[in-house]
Amino acid sequence: MTKSVTYGRGSRVGMIGGGQLGRMFIQSAIDFNVEVHVLDPDPQAPCKFIAHSFTEGSLNDYETVLKFGEDKDVLTVEIENINIEALEVLEKMGKKVFPQPNVLRIIKDKGIQKEFYSNHNIPTAPFKLIQSNDELNKNKDFLPFVQKMRTGGYDGKGVQVIKSKNEFEKGFQAPSVLEQLIDFEKEISVIVARNEAGQMTTFPAVECEFNPEANLVELLFSPADISSQVEQNAQDLAKSVIEKLDMIGILAVEMFLTKDGELLVNEIAPRPHNSGHHTIECNVTSQFEQHLRSILNLPLGSTKIIQAGAMINLLGEKGFEGKAVYEGLENYLKLPGVHPHLYGKTHTKPYRKMGHVTVTGELVEEVKQLAKEALIGIKVISE
């Protein structure tokens, strides 16, 4: 007999964090008639006007998070920097919390994250842990390296490259990871999902190009320009990471492909990720729908590519702060295969993620070229 499933008012999902990731998650949840209730400190958060309900409050306040979760069936996150202690109590109360609080503890702290890789034989760049900038002098033999704040960094913040001891003065006065600078060939990302039944799926790898000044993904394209063997190895590595975490939900696994063909895990994110936005148009199932399916223990959807795609982030221009204006966007809306996603943020500031544009088509080189033109031609400025 076929099992029936009740959705809608019988499935109250709590989303902790109300940014653009939550907004796109809600857009998928609407198709399943699932209620999504959102907690965020910003009274004008992107999720506010499309969530089933919106609660304004701190993500790091124990009582706020606990109270928010008490009447929800399933809780999930779109950001790691939240009060994990409250989630642990909610889990003990019988609430489904995905990703699980113990997983968030590992990933929230980049030092613990790197130690997890080391302890579980997950290939990663050599690293050292320090407590403050004062210890940089003791690690001159480790140069060049990338310094990453253990907690609090996001969207390229809290990360810097240090190539010589003359740059030590710009080091972070905070507990940090020193990661050996890898001379990699490419940076790729694989998104993997896993439900309570143990089913796993991976999206085909994407290739990422970064803005060196903002340290943010500027352009990505799919499928990645890698061999079938590297693709398979990347899929296997992503599955290995989520299995070793014993995590439920969706996980983005960012990797370096070294010049000798080795894959090293750079960082992981236990939620929908910037490197999966193209899946809305380019894959049978989007990363947002897959996240919903995984946390509700539904069968996972097909991740097959249906068309090539490239995605650019729309970042606030340097020197502009105020009410957002999308200069040049209309010129690209005239072209086939151009799909804008604006995040509902009324005000821009330098390097703030204001939206993204996905370009789709038959050939990856063609969509990549058009995306690069759009990257130059579309500017987020202010009035």
Quick take:
By secondary structure, the protein is α+β, with helices and mostly antiparallel strands. Helix content is 25%, strand content 32%. The protein contains ten helices and 21 strands.
Q: Would you write up a description of this structure?
A:
- Helix content is 25%, strand content 32%.
- With 383 residues, it is an alpha+beta fold.
- The protein folds into 3 domains: 8-97, 3-Layer(aba) Sandwich (Rossmann fold), CATH 3.40.50; 126-180, ATP-grasp fold, A domain (Dna Ligase, domain 1); 184-382, ATP-grasp fold, B domain (D-amino Acid Aminotransferase, Chain A, domain 1).
- Strands 10, 11, 12, 13, 14, 15, 16, 18 and 20 form a 9-stranded antiparallel β-sheet that branches. A 5-stranded parallel β-sheet has the order 3-2-1-4-5, sandwiched between helices. It has a 4-stranded antiparallel β-sheet with strand order 6-9-7-8, covered by helices on one side.
- Helix 3 packs antiparallel against helix 4 (101-108) and helix 4 (101-108) packs across helix 5 (110-119).
- It is globular.
- 43% of the residues are buried.
The stretches of 5 or more residues where confidence is low (pLDDT under 50) are: 1-9
Total DSSP E strands = 21
CATH homologous superfamily identity of the largest domain: ATP-grasp fold, B domain
Based on the coordinates given, report the CATH architecture of the largest domain.
2-Layer Sandwich
Number of helices: 10
Query: Which structural class best describes the helix and strand composition?
Result: alpha+beta
The CATH topology annotation of the largest domain reads as: D-amino Acid Aminotransferase, Chain A, domain 1
- Indicate the CATH class of the largest domain: Alpha Beta
**How much is the radius of gyration in Å?**
21 Å
So what's the overall shape? globular
Overall structural domain count: 3
